[in-house]
Predict the 3D structure of the following.
Amino acid sequence: MVRLIEFLLLLGAAYWLYARWRNSNRIEESTNQNKQTKPTVAPVQPMVECAYCNLRLPMNEALSHAGNYFCDASHRDAINAKGWLGAAKFSPSANFNERPDTSIDTLVIHHISLPVGKFGGGFVEDFFCNRLNVELDPYFKEIGHLQVSSHFLIDRQGSLTQFVGCNDRAWHAGMSNLFERDQCNDFSIGIELEGTGEAEYTSAQYETLAKLTNIIKKKYPIQYIVGHSDISPERKTDPGLSFDWEIYRQKANISEVQMPFGTTSR
């Protein structure tokens, strides 16, 4: 009888241990299953603002260009309400002021190289932004005090930089006259080409200039496209004899009426 009781006690203890082991396995299996089925939470995307329309959207859905974000390519390739073109590199200049109450109806084509006759180096950008190191070249000491600007610059590779919003008045034309209207800065947009007027301009520059011209024409009622020499003939020669007005006219699909001084190089 005693042995039977001992046997039953051992059998009960064994069953109790087995039950605990089974319960432990079930808990572990349930935990593992929960880990496997738990949904993965996607990381939260930072929000950015379209530089054209100011719409806020997730960064991974936006188009990034030159440090700015856009809804799509059409917004990148358009001039926004403040006069800035998303396709350009922005390098804001302090050399501008408000326009008078007048229509923006003229494009003025210029050339520039710094030092004179040399290309590259970023000196034109520095000049327009009042940070030109005058110790780097004797000519820089002659011009370092000047405060000038242009709306756009197209370098030899066709890269586009904007310094002043098109709605504002850049200081590019100086003393000038177009059809008995003085102070052409009031009603014009200035486009600088990196060049000398003697060296041939590059095909990349003509391509960018044509695209820029058509973008500007979509935004503003452009009537005239002229050279700096056309509005300041006694002071200026740019864009010079090497600028091919006919190539430019064809690439940008400009009517002859909009080129009142013709397409002959001058």
Notes: The chain is about 30% helix and 15% strand.
